[in-house]
Amino acid sequence: GMLQRAMIAQSLACNPAILIADEPTTALDVTIQAQILELMLELQRTENMSIILITHDLAVVARMADRVAVMYAGQVIESGTVDDIFYRSSHPYTLGLKEAMPSNTDDRDKSLSPILGSPPDLFKPPVGCGYCARCPYAMAVCAEHLPPTTTISESHEARCWLHHPTAPDIEELHQLDDQNAG
């Protein structure tokens, strides 16, 4: 925790307009993590500073972010407000991340759903969607062409062929959307 505090102090010495924090709470216990995040939020308020937070911890994202960009294989595959990402996820990878995340509820019997497969080799990037090999909804077009960015709402975009007008209607995605909304 002290190292993180020292790094934050050092990075703020020249009064930046933007603080870029790459995994600022990795390997910290929950109490110290909360203190570091609260310190960053306080500095954001008092110094009128923006924060770009790079993290794999969705709980940290939910607490800290206004807007979220979900990346996979070096590409932004979904972006939107925190509510868009957590309650109206539109990319299979984002849905998979949420299913793989432990819940704060008392539902201890619910097992986590891992994302099967391995990430692509970025030294030989795939031609199409980087998530295609792991995606349970992959279609031929996914392997052949990079998906276009589709506007889901005014604040929400996703890069997935499932949102293309010619894509098949996938009932499972609608069920996940219903679960997200509930």
From the structure above, extract its key features.
36% helix; 182 residues; Rossmann fold; alpha+beta; two-stranded parallel sheet
Write up this protein:
The chain is α+β, with helices and mostly antiparallel strands and 182 residues long. The chain has two domains: 1-65, no CATH class; 67-182, P-loop containing nucleotide triphosphate hydrolases (Rossmann fold), CATH 3.40.50.300. Helix content is 36%, strand content 18%. It is built from seven helices and six strands; from the N terminus they run H-E-H-E-H-E-E-H-H-H-E-E-H. It has helices at residues 2-11, 30-47, 58-64, 82-87, 92-99, 140-144, 171-181; strands spanning 18-22, 50-54, 67-72, 75-81, 149-153, 156-159. A four-stranded antiparallel beta sheet has the order 3-4-6-5. A hairpin with a 2-residue loop joins strand 5 (149-153) and strand 6 (156-159).
Distance between the termini: 37 Å
Radius of gyration: 18 Å
Number of helices: 7
Strand content: 15-25%
Helix content: 25-40%
| Strand line-up across the major sheet | 3-4-6-5
CATH superfamily of the largest domain: P-loop containing nucleotide triphosphate hydrolases
Report the CATH topology name of the largest domain: Rossmann fold
Number of E-state strands: 6
CA-based shape: globular
Could you describe the largest sheet, including whether it forms a barrel? 4 strands, antiparallel
CATH architecture of the largest domain: 3-Layer(aba) Sandwich
Residue-averaged pLDDT = 87
Poorly predicted regions: none
Total number of distinct structural domains: 2
Q: Please report the first level of CATH classification, the CATH class of the largest domain.
A: Alpha Beta
Q: SSE order in H/E notation?
A: HEHEHEEHHHEEH
Structural class determined from secondary elements: alpha+beta
